[in-house]
Amino acid sequence: MTLLLSRRDLDFLLYDWLDAGSRHPEHSRETFDAVLDLAAEVAAEHFAPHNKRADAAEPTFDGERVHMIPEVRKALDVLAQTGLVESSVELPHVVSTAAFAWFQAANPGTWAYPFLTIAAANLLRAHGTPEQVETYVRPMVEGRFHGTMCLSEPQAGSSLADITTRAEPQPDGTYRLFGNKMWISAGEHELGENIVHLVLAKIPGGPRGVRGISLFLVPKFLPDGQRNDIALAGLNHKMGYRGTTNTLLNFGEGARTPGGLPGAVGHLVGPEHGGLACMFHMMNEARVGVGTGAAALGYTGYLKSLDYARTRTQGRPPAAKDSAAKDPAAPPVPIIEHPDVRRMLLAQKCYAEGALALVLYCGRLLDEQDTGPDPDRARLLLDVLTPIAKSWPSQWCVTANDLAIQVHGGYGYTREYDVEQHYRDNRLNPIHEGTHGVQALDLLGRKVTMQGGAGLALLRETVAATCARATTGEAAELAAQLDAVWDRIVAVTGRIHAEPDPDRLADASTYLEAVGHAVIAWIWLEQYLACGDRDEPFHRGKRQAARYFFRRELPRTGPQLALLSALDRTTVEMDPAWF
User: Whose C-alpha in 78, 192, 490, 535 is 20 to 30 A from the C-alpha of 252?
Assistant: First the structure.
């Protein structure tokens, strides 16, 4: 039995809840099942086995080349041979999201290479020229070329308005790039024939700030085989994702001058000064992907701690009814018999299964915005959910990993068990692709106000439609509780934006957490309803997890919404000199 993900849960989410089978009549369930089976097999046999070794023996740089363990290249070659990445273009997003989650659970460090490549290829399909697509996208999806996204710079961090990398136009229509890019995952390696860097830079004379940013395709090797002027200045060493090279790249430093001219050769992608809008195509896809990876790591940690709790014996039942069970000489019981362990397992189940359901729902929205009956509705709903889909799993599945360590007791923080690495790997995800605070500002500052508040109104309407389906019994009680929370969210949002205070976004992170919890409660109500009247242990577990979330997690939003409604200024009035 695999402890990466639950195939039973994936089947429930894809078929019983999201109805992927009938929504895509051009495919058969047999096709979807075959893809999921193949992904699970390759992830378990070729990615998971070297996860710990890649973590312990992270890539090194000798001043000329990057060195890493050979299993990484072997796993990526196997993945390329299966055609899973290539065929994912033809599959519904919801199915490919589920398939790729197996790899994110098995080995996020190795999966980062195809993850970034897929997102870069999709950006080029959407915004690249036919020549760029022909030259670069095909070998990318075949696994021969790899891709990156180069946004951050040492001095700018998340403030893209402050990037200084420049792109000077050339008579032949190309550009020469000069500058430095920091924290570039997969920025240098020898895992394929080429690396396609998608680089944000400014063309001299353009508008100031983000309106002057353009996007460029800058390959490691030019089509004639010549090495481009991209130099690896060094590797960054992170607490997790250690199998992924994380780099400082110098463009146009003069180490190599293609054609005898200074600068790295780049090709404009999309319009001049329209680069950020193009890059958001990749960033938003990557944000949901980060949320999926966080959910996958939370899920595998949950399954491993569940397995440990069922097999590890320790202590006696604290509420034993008969004297024999209380006898110190009686055999110890599996620790899952202890209520506090069950509490920790149930919390993990809520976080991991809720997070996975959310990102799969976003996968369905991606399908609907391409082929659904109302693509504008799907696009708007996905826009408002994206910061939540990125940040909620990244926060609460780290909490799940923390609980997985706790269930393991002293063994949990030893390297002999997997859960300590899952925690370290997952702790990077609240920062990956825009920090928790950046996503919070995006949600409260833009997404809930866009189109006159249409995004929030649509989300509220969607939640209300679910509540309207819960008409009897316990489901109706949960729906009433959820409806009340969402009424408060709408009211609080209006109050925040009714104030002209420039500091009104100071508690955006609190807002993101409250709305995120309300979204996951909605997702759990959806799962509760999808169980119908079936009474197998699996469905009983789903209903119990929904109860737990509504009773123990959703109430967290009460004090948060009260704080937001009060427009508290404690943090903004804190003088830096007082720290």
Answer: 192
